[in-house]
Amino acid sequence: MSSPTHGNVPFTELMALDRIDDNTFRSIARPWSPGNGDRAFGGHVYAQAAYAASQTVGKGFVVHNITGLFILPGLLDVPFVYTIQRIREGGSYCTRSVTVTQNPSAPPAAQSTTRDPICFTALVSLKRDETSPYSHQAHVDLAQKYTTVLWGKKSPTDHPAAPSADRPAQWTYEHTHNPPDSFPGVEVRKVNMTPYNSNQPPHGRAKDPIDYRQLQYYRAIGSMPKEDVNLHACAHLYASDRNSMFLVTNALGIGDGFGMMASLSHIVVLHVGTEELLMVDRKGEKRWFCQEAWTERSGGGRGLHVSRIWDEKGVHIGSTMQDGMVRLKRGEKGEKGAKL
Hints:
Layout: H1 11-15, E1 17-21, E2 24-27, H2 42-54, E3 62-70, E4 81-89, E5 93-101, E6 118-127, H3 142-145, H4 147-150, H5 168-177, E7 186-190, E8 214-220, H6 229-240, H7 244-252, E9 258-270, H8 274-277, E10 289-299, E11 302-310, E12 316-328
């Protein structure tokens, strides 16, 4: 597998696929790992599963909805093999099921078999563009709503790169060592929300976790061909998973006190058509998008991450909901394997 060694890897390179047959694809690029750990970033397999599904539909069908289930941690040095099942071929909508496997003992060119362990599965819906006599959305002026943290900022590049893992230990490490941004495919900038998330002790925490908010700006890295609309759609899917579950632990004030955390399921709905999904404007200039995220529920060893994705004109282009496992460190509060 090719290995991204820094944050300048183009998104097109990250999503590149080898076609094994009409319904089977294999990843080429090595996925990134949060915090230099030993697990693959979940957004990679999530976005690439949708991109693989898009290779099996006719022209004009674009990803608009994906529900994914994370079953096993993704391995870093073993290709993902994507097997597509064609559920429905409609005039306006197509549906695909994607099963993703990794076999660490198989040679690199081997195909997936029914005995290979499944690490991820997804249901992907794709549709054609269509006009509608109705449209509504919430109208949110982010600059006004979050003036305490956005005042005086002229560009998303005025904000620092998102940390490799959005937790206090990583904040300290990156503040001390100032490492280069290693995140490939998409440039992500994190807004310092401390002034907004007031009453924040001990870790930038709002008084009520429900009120905690996080803004992240993102744009694609590298050239993005306009004709491959699904590549643009998948860039949104990829970015939507960046540091997502860390928001829950930060909102709760857990900080580094979690013992285990992992995504269980992730849903993204893209609400807009081709033109508004594109990562470049009509002049070919890169577009910035903003993910406004919060948490609505935690308990039973799990937490819920929710977000809306906005473009630069205030169009609500997408919504996300992610369910994740969040368990406290063993012995926390005197309990063995205490759970959130």
